[in-house]
Design brief:
heterodimer; A: about 800 residues; Rossmann fold; 7-stranded mixed β-sheet; 6-stranded mixed β-sheet; 27 helices; about 25% strand; B: ABC transporter involved in vitamin B12 uptake, BtuC; 13 helices
């Protein structure tokens, strides 16, 4: 921003005494190293100045320095014209109150007690509060609407209430300036807005100068008088009014600079420019089973949050419609998941849509998920469009590319239209991320693109379902709100009659019918990504299959099949000592072989694995885990950041990572298995390979392995080797075949000397079929399917077919 | 809130009263309640009973009461300082540090033949306490993890104890007995001379703590908040650590290291009072410490009379379970 800033000059004319909070040539940072230089802020009484910028830009560092918690590297902070460094703490406290993000243990302190801390500078040595103090505390509490909480224990409050009380504490300090660090960070949307209102009222009524940092650009727009934009590299890029900052593309470029999370990406995709294409393209191309006049119907499922159960609901709806005789396809414009699936064409797509396609009884196609983002925390992120890897992109690069993706999405939709009667679209996250929704293409933007009615799903299991649903509706624009045709309360447990009055009120207040209250279901289906409960549970059974939970674990659904056998426990372990009670150890696939190998060494797993192996227990490595079993992993092409690392050297193999991605469906016979699982020889497997790089026997070049030893080919076409009880293969889905799983469990049972109880193992596919039907039955029972059909615009005429279906 | 506070304080004071009386009357010579008053009024030190009561029991009871209070208070101040409920003079090695320096002093006294006054004991103990505290604070600066800090404290305690043992091994025979008894912790050596010093120190300690109460209240919300409301955090921290070291040093000098009172009592008091008002907690902790030490000393004296247990043996039996319960509770919360 420099001093040349026009706005700044304007202010300079009538400043000084008038300035409650001011900085001069301030440089802030740690240990004498400046992160941000030349900060010249002027905060006038009655004004709000907001620092915005991506996480890690250094907003907090600036605020800490202004608040006096950090020494400036250079320059000075002025409070009412006095230099901060020359003031003692009690003088500072009479000028400036702060509200930081740090949490404290308030133990038994009541809200009154917490706010009373703000009176510190007014009270006597013994800290006795006089009438004036009590009055000030009460009025501060009243101001933020927390007076009724006065006697409540602070620690027991909700985050929203806590922030209110902390603001009251700052008010009670009766200062001219107020500094707040991410005051809305912990809050949900409605509390964010409430907090903003309080703050604005405070500034207006008490003429306080406020400096705050905030992460949500959208809130800034409504709140701040002046916006300070800090770029990722810590440069103050601009100081301007919110109107100007939010004009054009500036905010995008500001946040472009950093790949904070791809959630933000969703928001920045521009739908406006490409909207016309929908209108001109893709009309009446479809061949429909329905009335010739009608075209493909769309229905979109959006959630109030990620994990609300959208994916399964879409799968269930697909199955219901399939049972009723429709050709139905799932769709999600952009997916973010660690796991991917390889289609028959060798193309990559999100697993959630694969699962939904299975439910719909169709073959998965990349058109169901045109954009797939695989976050890779170390390198950036892999962007996959229509099944093909575009490469590891930093967010910056992705943003440049993104506009060209909108036609790809429309193209994918058109392809689906050609084939299907109905497309059920899944949203991502919440449609009410008010900072991001402007250019949305995954939620309401997507719905608008194809003019789909929307079902909004709330998760009652996590609590606050009414607030979720009503709050989300509240935050939508009118036209978006009009799209929401039904609400769904998902994951309900217990007695529905208790819920009924709430449902009625929900319908009255939201003016949207409730399409169903769906009970909590435990299904043995694949999860989209690692946000699942499975990693947390740990139980011991007669046979323990312990999978090492690598930090970059991928495609972990490989092992689900083991979960159905009663005396077998499938555990994801993170501590080396948990290997001690494993009967079978599996090293799973990873998105970052070298990184995870390092982790194995550092976490002590390497030593634990050696000990485990020396007791002759079996160890299986899949894909990345297979690479790890080898002696050497080389990365000459910088696929994973370069370098090389020694593997576990349990198999005499070395891996050279490369930019070319192997990606194919494979099947074959197990060639020669030795050791405990010798019974596997000759068994058929099928699955898919997906990996960067090749693995060969022996060393590579000058990295000759001293003792290759003998090794047996395990899976076909050099895709896996084994030695003794160590098995490695590139084949994902290796455990999907019933015979293989049965054989493995038999062998393990024999080792342990217990009876084998897994005779009734259901092949993974059949198991899943059963689960989809169960899901569909549940939806039929608890959801208003007539409403769903109405929304699709096809009445309920297929319900008759369903009756016949029932006889099956 | 008010009611709760009144109730807790009343109960504590009544308990002190009862325990003082029992302490007066129970022992190798039983003295009836009615006789106590008579003996006191007559200042009768000629009879055996009078001598026992006035010269032995009363100083011991006063000392147990005051030192117990100081110990609990010192523990509470340390907990406030480290923002950690399981900090305490014994756990952090402060008592053991004091013990070490006092042991040195004792051995030197016998070696070079000088007498050791109470003042010297307190000073030596204070030096030891500050040294140990210094180590712990240095460790706290390095590690933010509270359990690691506690482990550091325990290790410092062990090192100090080990060195003390070495001293004991090479000390002259008759010193050993003395030193050994003392290093286990006991109120048995109390005398009227000591009481004067103990009373003065107690009054000083309690009053300074009360004057720190407002700042402790603010400090509970974290250093940055405390600073922002106008507190001089540096000065406060120094005061706090000096007062608490001084208190635990006094206790150690007179009664040896006494375990667990410093952790368990403040914890129980906080649970009972359910308040963040530091004045109440400070007073409560002091009274609670007095009650516990009176009770434990009674047991130490009376349980296997005429044999005497060390005070730490008894306080550990009652204190350790409280600490364990506390940590389990913490896990759940």
């Amino acid at each position: 921003m420099k001093k040349s800033n026009t706005d700044e000059n304007k202010h300079n004319k009538n400043m000084d005494e008038n300035m409650a909070l001011k900085t001069g040539d301030l440089s802030v940072g740690y240990d004498g190293k400046a992160l941000i230089r030349d900060i010249a802020l002027n905060v006038k009484p009655g004004k709000i100045v907001a620092l915005i910028g991506p996480n890690g830009a250094g907003k907090s560092t600036v605020l800490k320095t202004v608040a006096g918690h950090l020494k400036p590297v250079y320059g000075e902070v002025y409070l009412s014209g006095k230099s901060l460094s020359k003031m003692n703490s009690s003088e500072i406290s009479s000028e400036m109150a702060v509200m930081m993000t740090e949490r404290f243990n308030a133990e038994y302190a009541t809200c009154f007690d917490v706010v009373s801390i703000g009176r510190y500078r007014f009270t006597s040595v013994l800290g006795r509060l006089d009438e004036k103090d009590v009055e000030a505390i009460d009025s501060a509490l009243k101001f933020v609407g927390a007076y009724e909480l006065k006697r409540k224990t602070f620690d027991r409050l909700s985050d929203g209430q806590k922030q209110r009380v902390l603001l009251a504490r700052a008010i009670a300090q009766e200062t001219g300036s107020l500094v707040l660090d991410e005051p809305t960070g912990f809050l949900d949307i409605s509390h964010k807005l409430e907090f903003m209102d309080n703050l604005k009222r405070l500034v207006r009524e008490k003429n306080i100068a406020v400096l705050l940092s905030i992460h949500e650009p959208e809130l800034v727009k409504k709140l701040a008088d002046l916006v300070v934009c800090i770029k990722k590299d810590g440069e103050i890029d601009r100081i301007d009014t919110p109107e100007n900052v939010f004009k054009g593309d500036y905010i995008k470029t500001l946040f472009d600079v950093r790949s904070e999370s791809f959630d933000e990406v969703y928001g920045f995709l521009n739908r406006g420019e490409n909207k016309s294409e929908t209108d001109t393209e893709g009309k009446d191309i479809c061949k429909s089973n329905l009335d010739p006049a009608s075209k493909t119907k769309f229905l979109m499922v959006q959630g109030t949050m990620s994990g609300a159960g959208k994916s399964l609901l879409v799968a269930g709806l697909c199955r219901v419609l399939k049972q009723d005789g429709y050709k139905v396809s799932p769709f999600k414009s952009q997916n973010m998941a660690l796991n991917s699936y390889v289609t028959e064409d060798g193309l990559e797509m999100g697993r959630a849509q694969v699962m939904q396609a299975e439910a719909a009884g169709i073959k998965p196609s990349v058109y169901m998920n045109p954009i797939l983002l695989k976050p890779n925390s170390d390198v950036g992120s892999q962007v996959i469009v229509n099944g093909k890897v575009l490469g590891n992109m930093k967010a910056r690069e992705y943003f440049k590319y993104k506009k060209s993706l909108v036609p790809e999405i429309l193209h994918a939709v058109d392809k689906l239209k050609e084939e299907f009667d109905i497309v059920i679209i899944e949203g991502a996250g919440s449609p009410a991320e008010i900072n991001l929704k402007e250019n949305d293409i995954v939620n309401m933007g997507m719905a608008a693109l194809v003019d789909a009615p929307v079902l909004l799903v709330g998760d009652i299991d996590r609590g606050g379902v009414f607030a979720q649903l009503l709050g989300t509706l509240e935050l939508l624009e009118e036209d978006e709100k009009a799209r929401v045709k039904g609400l769904v309360v998902n994951k309900f447990r217990g007695d529905k009659s208790i819920l009924d009055p709430g449902i009625e009120m929900l319908e009255n207040m939201g003016k949207v019918p409730v399409a169903g209250v769906v009970p909590y279901m435990r299904l043995s289906l694949e999860d989209e990504d690692s946000l699942t409960e499975r990693f947390e549970k740990k139980k011991k059974a007669e046979i323990n299959i312990n999978v090492i939970r690598l930090p970059h674990i991928s495609n972990f659904t490989d092992f689900d099949v083991f979960e159905q056998v009663e005396n077998v426990a499938l555990n994801y372990i993170t501590k080396p000592e948990d290997l001690e009670w494993a009967d079978l150890c599996i090293i799973p696939g990873t998105k970052n072989t070298i990184g995870d190998m390092k982790w194995l060494k550092e976490s002590g797993f390497e030593a634990a694995i050696m000990k485990y192996v020396s007791s002759d227990k079996p160890l299986i490595g899949i894909c990345g885990g297979y690479q790890i079993l080898g002696s050497k992993i080389l990365d000459p092409e910088n696929v994973e950041g370069g370098g090389s690392i020694d593997g576990l050297s349990l198999l005499p193999l070395s891996t050279r990572l490369g930019n070319k991605k192997h990606r194919e469906l494979v099947s074959g016979k197990i060639k020669g298995a030795g050791g405990i699982f010798s019974g596997l020889s000759g068994k058929e497997y099928s699955g898919y390979e997906i990996h960067m790089g090749d693995t060969d026997i022996g060393g590579l070049g000058d990295n000759e392995i001293s003792d290759p030893g003998e090794v047996t080919e395990f899976t076909d076409r050099l895709s896996g080797y084994c030695r003794g009880n160590i098995y490695g293969t590139y084949v994902h889905g290796f455990f999907d075949e019933k015979d293989i799983v049965t054989e493995i469990l038999k062998a393990l049972s024999k080792e342990k000397g217990i009876d084998f109880t897994g005779e009734r193992i259901v092949a993974h596919k059949d198991l899943k079929e059963r689960e989809y039907d169960r899901l569909a039955d549940t939806l039929r029972e608890y959801m208003d399917m007539e409403l769903v059909y109405d929304l699709l615009g096809i009445g309920n005429r297929k319900l008759e077919i369903r009756k016949d279906d029932k006889n099956r | 809130m008010k009611l709760r506070r009144t109730l807790v304080f009343s109960v504590l004071i009544i308990l002190i009263f009862i325990l003082v009386l029992i302490n007066f009357s129970v022992g190798s010579v039983d003295i009836k309640g009615s006789d106590i008053l008579k003996l006191l009024l007559n200042r009768d030190t000629t009879s055996v009973r009078g001598a026992v009561l006035i010269n032995i029991r009363i100083p011991r009871v006063i000392e147990a009461m005051l030192l117990g209070g100081c110990l609990a208070l010192s523990g509470y101040l340390l907990q406030a300082f480290f923002a950690n409920p399981i900090a305490g003079p014994f756990v952090l090695g402060i008592s053991s540090g004091a013990k070490l320096v006092v042991a040195c002093l004792m051995v030197m006294g016998s070696e070079f033949g000088f007498g050791i006054s109470s003042g010297m004991m307190v000073s030596a103990s204070f030096v030891g306490a500050l040294l140990a505290t210094g180590f712990v604070i240095a460790a706290a600066g390095k590690v933010k993890n509270m359990s690691v800090l506690i482990v550091c404290g325990i290790m410092i305690g062990y090192i100090a104890s080990a060195v003390t043992e070495v001293l004991v091994t090479f000390a002259d025979d008759y010193n050993i007995v003395n030193l050994h008894n003392w290093s286990l912790g006991t109120f048995s050596s109390s005398s009227w001379q000591e009481i004067k010093i103990v009373v003065i120190i107690t009054i000083l300690g309690v009053f300074t703590s009360l004057f720190l109460s407002k700042q402790i209240e603010a400090y509970l919300f974290g250093e940055n908040y405390a600073k922002s409301v106008g507190m001089n955090v540096r000065v406060f921290r120094i005061c706090l650590i000096l007062v608490s070291s001084f208190l635990s040093a006094t206790v150690t000098a007179f009664a040896g290291p006494v375990s667990f009172v410093g952790i368990a009592v403040p914890h129980v008091i906080r649970r009972l009072l359910k308040t963040s008002k530091q004045r109440s907690i400070i007073m409560g902790a002091f009274l609670g410490g007095a009650v516990v030490c009176l009770f434990c000393d009674l047991l130490a004296r009376a349980l296997f009379a005429p044999m005497e247990l060390s005070i730490s043996t008894v306080t550990a039996v009652f204190g350790a379970p409280v600490v364990i319960g506390m940590m389990l509770n913490k896990k759940r919360a």
